TrEMBL record:
One GO MF term: oxidoreductase activity
InterPro entries: ADH-like_C, ADH-like_N, GroES-like_sf, NAD(P)-bd_dom_sf
Name listed for the protein in its UniProt record: Alcohol dehydrogenase
Superkingdom field: Bacteria
Organism: Mycobacterium decipiens
Ranges where the Alcohol dehydrogenase-like C-terminal domain occurs: 178-299
């Protein structure tokens, strides 16, 4: 079977990947589209660091990071697919049905996140296994390429839900990569009346406006906080120093929602947050109902992800696509269509 795998820090094509065989409660599906996620790019470049940090988390919170980088790593967690074959004693949608799922595979041995794995295939492959209880039918004839973006849209929706923002409050989104854009789309869907987006990239600022931002700012021209008095700030940059800068510059009582994943040690001055009673909320992923809500929003036209899709490659082109995504002026989201 054909697949793209991480090998030695690079995505490479192979035509001899193992053919997945569904067990009880599992379904064999044909991958139709899979988005390349920023977390995949980061793991390709900094996988060893991700594994070390994940192993330090208490209570199994680092699940999915028990990976041997000396072996091929399967990835791809933003996918849509069509049903091929159920496992033994498994009821599922008819063959050919379009489906998606949260990226989790259930088996007799436990729960395997479909994120980074030496054994569990992800969406950068012709076929993969999904869990029958977690399958969601793709409704309303939704384009399967658009359905593949259910997962990142759910990440944005979760961040917005965690913020408890009201329509009359002003939101400031720092960083207009795919997750910042997903946050903007969720804010617009929520009816927030003032959405301001900040990014150095002109292309990404234009995309933010297309997806619902009412105002865009270039931080090279001055701090966004000199212009905007936001009730809620969404940090979607993920580099050291951003959080502390927000704590310093934000107004009293601001709610800061951190969705950018910073892998380096960072320094903050708690005094800034204490003096202004700033609430800080870190967020990750989404709840099952948020995943379903995002799929419904796409299918009903509440969110149009067409502008986000800036490229499409086959499995042979995944390595080059990883390189191309390093330039924010060229791409937002590249889809892999096996």
């Amino acid at each position: 079977m054909r697949a793209a795998v991480l090998r030695g820090g690079r995505m490479v094509y192979r035509d001899d990947a193992p053919d997945p065989v569904p067990g009880p409660g599992q379904v064999l599906v044909e991958v139709r589209a899979c988005g390349i996620c920023g977390s995949d790019l980061h793991f390709a470049a900094h996988g060893a660091e991700v594994i070390v940090l994940g192993s330090q988390l208490a209570g199994g919170a680092g699940g999915g990071t028990d990976v041997d980088l000396n072996r091929d790593v399967f990835m791809g967690h933003e996918f849509s697919a069509q049903v091929l074959e159920p496992g033994p004693d498994t009821q599922t949608q008819p063959t050919g049905s379009p489906v998606t799922s949260m990226p989790v595979l259930l088996s007799a041995s436990g729960v395997e996140p479909i994120v980074y794995s030496n054994n569990t295939l992800g969406g950068y492959a012709e076929r993969m296994l999904l869990s029958a209880p977690l399958l969601l039918p793709i409704p309303n004839g939704l384009d399967l390429k658009h359905a593949a973006l259910t997962e990142p849209m759910a990440v944005g929706l979760h961040a917005v839900n965690k913020s408890n923002i009201a329509p009359g409050e002003t939101a400031l989104v720092l960083g207009c990569g795919p997750i910042g854009i997903a946050i903007i789309a969720a804010l617009a869907m929520r009816g927030v009346e003032t959405i301001v987006a900040s990014d150095f990239s002109p292309m990404r600022r234009d995309l933010a406006a297309t997806m619902g931002a009412h105002q865009t700012l270039d931080p090279a021209q001055g701090s966004p906080f000199d212009t905007v008095k936001a009730a809620v700030v969404f940090e979607a940059v993920g580099v050291p120093g951003i959080i502390d800068d927000v704590l310093l510059r934000a107004r009293r009582g601001t709610r800061l929602v951190v969705s950018g994943v910073c892998m380096q040690p960072d320094t903050v001055h708690p005094f800034f947050a204490i003096a202004k009673e700033i609430s800080v909320q870190f967020v990750l992923a989404y709840r099952p109902e948020e995943f379903a809500d995002s799929l419904r929003a796409l299918a009903e036209g509440d969110i149009d992800v067409t502008p986000l899709i800036t490229g499409e490659v086959g499995l042979e082109g995944v390595g080059q696509a990883f390189d191309d995504l390093a330039d924010p002026e060229r791409h937002c989201k590249i889809l892999v269509t096996p």
